[in-house]
From TrEMBL:
Residue ranges with Pro residues bias: 59-75
Protein name: DUF3152 domain-containing protein
Region annotated Disordered, chain positions: 54-77, 261-282
Organism from which the protein derives: Micromonospora echinospora
Residue span, DUF3152 domain: 82-250
Superkingdom, taxonomy of origin: Bacteria
Pfam families on file: DUF3152
């Protein structure tokens, strides 16, 4: 993949007899992705319909009383407990798109605008709240806007956007990323930053802080949209550059969600490891 890395992950090894067919199919997918990248409306391009944002839940009845145990709880350890979000393996293919326009993050550099959308069928994820989480990560001074090379702004459903962050079900992830066999990872494909809800919910076992893993996930896939390829661990015991495929392994580095560490951009040697992609979505 190297410098031409599009944010897609390695396919699982297939029997030799199927390789010719796989090459033909992948070529068709990549050709379609090249065509798609030339069109401005991402949600139309990925063959999903825009939907009106779901109405807010109704207020509780006047006599409803809060549960005595309804207090904030710590973020669960990644890979162990799901934080209340539900999803089917395959969503509807339609997306709810956040409407709020955010401030420009970053002091200088090229401005890219992005939308945020959540696939129908994913339960207990408010699209506006998810969009705020995305915006908070992308606006952090330790992120891509921190060194003056990029500015990022969240825009609404009908605004022009340079890319869209999509929270998708595992099967839709495979379709949008051009690899139906992979229901585990996330990807970037053209102007689509595809976040697999399975990873958003369960994280990965070797990164025990789910908040930090989610920050990594967004920064890694958006990093591909900004032209960054995969990297390798530069020093055992040190923080992993954000472009290491931390979802699949750390290779001696420690988890790190940010492009900038201790005030300086952190990068590793270009390349990636031949880590297997787990079957299923967990």
């Amino acid at each position: 993949m190297g410098g031409r890395d599009r944010g897609l992950h390695r396919r699982r090894r297939r029997p030799r007899s199927g390789r010719i067919l796989a090459v033909v199919l992948v070529g068709a997918v990549l050709a379609a992705g090249g065509y798609a990248a030339r069109h401005a409306d991402l949600l139309d391009r990925v063959d999903v319909r825009r939907t009106v944002q779901a109405a807010a839940p109704s207020a509780p009845a006047p006599d409803a009383r809060p549960s005595p145990t309804a207090v904030p709880t710590p973020v669960p350890a990644a890979g162990r407990v799901a934080p209340g979000i539900g999803y089917p393996p395959r969503g509807s293919g339609a997306f709810r798109t956040a409407d709020t326009v955010g401030a420009v993050a970053g002091r200088s550099g090229e401005l890219l605008r992005y939308r945020v959308a959540v696939e129908d069928g994913i339960r207990n994820v408010d699209v506006e709240r998810f969009a705020r989480e995305v915006a908070a990560t992308l606006a952090d001074r330790r992120g891509w806007t921190g060194d003056g090379r990029w500015r990022l702004q969240r825009v609404g459903r009908d605004d022009r956007a340079d890319f869209t962050v999509l929270l998708t079900t595992p099967v839709t992830r495979g379709r949008l990323c051009g690899d139906p066999s992979d229901r585990y990872t996330s990807c970037r494909n053209g102007d689509q930053v595809v976040i697999n809800v399975a990873r958003w919910v369960y994280g990965v076992p070797h990164v025990t802080d789910l908040d930090r893993y989610r920050q990594y996930l967004l920064n890694h896939e958006v990093g591909h949209r900004l032209g960054r390829g995969h990297e390798r661990c530069p020093r055992a015991g040190g923080p992993a550059p954000v472009m290491v495929q931390q979802t699949l392994g750390l290779h001696g580095c420690t988890p790190n969600p940010w492009p900038i560490v201790d005030g300086e951009p952190l990068a590793g040697p270009p390349g990636q490891y031949d880590d297997p992609i787990p079957a299923g979505d967990r």
